[in-house]
Specification:
RNA Polymerase Alpha Subunit, Chain A, domain 2, 12 strands, single chain, 247 residues, Gyrase A, domain 2, 4-stranded antiparallel beta sheet, alpha+beta, flat, 2 domains
Length: 247
Amino acid sequence: MNVKKLKAQGNELKLLVKGTDIKFMNALRRTAINAVQVLAIEDVSIYKNNSVLFDEFLASRLGLLPIKTHSSHKEGEKVKMSLAKKGPCTVYSADIKSSDPKAEIVFKEVPIVKLGANQEIKMEMTAVMGVGKEHAKWQPGIVSFNEVPDAKERAKLNNPRAIVESCPKKVLELKAGKIVLKDPYECTLCGRCETESNGKFEIVGNKNSFILRVESFGQLPAEQILLKAAAKIKEKSKEFEKELKKL
């Protein structure tokens, strides 16, 4: 297997993965989304809330706020947080105080509720480590992949230039009268070129090369999400091997 970094910008990571198959890629994707542990607010104790939002609505909003998760945070670990504000004001995610400086709210400008005069909220929260298969609030990011695309002509093309110009991403070009992908890593597989050709031209995928995309929600860096997913797959494989030897 060979892995090459195509793009790393902010919370986004794009990799070229060669020498594997779709089964492994899907296992990696599902593990990254469902089995990588991160912190999220689970328990909320509300002592005062006379705002326009119900207690349940506030708790739901708080639970979906991404929380930075450090490598020192272990399974089952809990972090205490608190929120107390009086109106008139807008309550933002930056107003949440954490007992652990390594477990802060990622995005500070998320509005939670607007308080009018004489309105107040006061609550304590507990953030716990969890996984995405239990609830979406524990998902660390969006992970997707697709086969590396390649251009293929199935019949003689009447107007190849029109097919090239139909591409919204402008990743096609004419070379020696043939259509080629000048940047296969930016192709979105939208199918516009295939429609324009009336079935004479198509984009086919390489069954052993993939473009892997990770967009972190901010709890963990994108690379850490993949590393933890790979470690989880390795752990499960060893566990399965151990059980097989007992048979």
